[in-house]
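Hey L., structure's done. Input below.
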Amino acid sequence: MKIDSIQRYRHHLELTAEWLMRSINKGKGGSCAHFSPLLGWSKPYPETTGYLIPTLIRLSKFFNEPRYSYAAMEIGQWLLDIQSQNGSWHGGLHPNNNPEGSVFNTGQILKGMMALYHLTNDQVFLSAADKGCSWLAGSVDSDGLWPAGDYRASETPSYYSHVAWPMLQVWIATQSNSQRTAAERFLDTVLQRKLPNGAMARWGFGDHGSAFTHTIAYTIRGFQESSLLIGDYSKYGTPMNKILDFFVKKSELSNGRVPGEFDEALKNNKNYVCLTGNAQLAICILLMEKQNPDLRLVNAAAKMIDFIGSVQPKCKIIKSLRGGVAGSYPLWGRYMFMRYPNWSAKYYCDSLISIISRLEVEK
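Output:
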């Protein structure tokens, strides 16, 4: 049974990897943000192009296929070319008529720079990451927050824990105390927003109301990965266990069809599934399971991953759809309405590699 599941997951991974390569081939330097059945391919998106790089490198190792690493190098060079003098990268798609530095986007691109540095040992990537991280660290205020740089909320959202994580990746290489201090100051501040039910205040795009599982998972994983980097999972990772247990139960009860959004009281919108969030939450659950092995957690993550695979387009006629992952199911759900984002495919690939690796332990 496990072998059959692994083969099925490998098939989905191949399909999705090929879709990601098409997003790069169409991207004019980077990876297109999304494909729309109505409008076609979008302009490239620096933010998600950045964190697509580690996924491409994983795919290259997984399949022993160098073309994925070559693609990672090419889009990495494109990101180097568009980095601002102050070290930041701009928000939105590229080109952008208002290219102001974006805190969140810069953070995600650091992941790509560090992945390429570890792959090649080329100092140009570390230098770019160091410059970007220093810009982020210098922008944190006395409260531990970023006072500017978010595109919607009036105060730094909790999902910016996903910025602290790559800052700590850079700190590991540079040993810059200011970089670690800024990242941990933010994490300490936001951890105080944790509610008794395990949810985190301000974990969505806006100040209040419901949040997509996409940003909920961003919030959780940022804390988990940061804890692993500082070598103390109990500090930031363990506080995420309660909310992850909640999502484990949701997956078990819904057979992986987890509602697409939840408010801070954990009331949900059952009208659709945020497929991106499903993949991300599965990764978070598997990260938690690494600390305390439990096949029940593996099963809950597998159900979420399986649901994505069950609705993934496999048609051979429209190549731009084949292997993509929609923002929502159904396609007209509230998250990324009628679009197939490159980050949905990225996180689905990551979740597939994670579940395959875990199941191979059990063989």
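The mean pLDDT is 96. The beta strands are 34-36, 40-41, 211-212, 261-262, 268-269, 273-274, 328-329, 340-341.

-- N.
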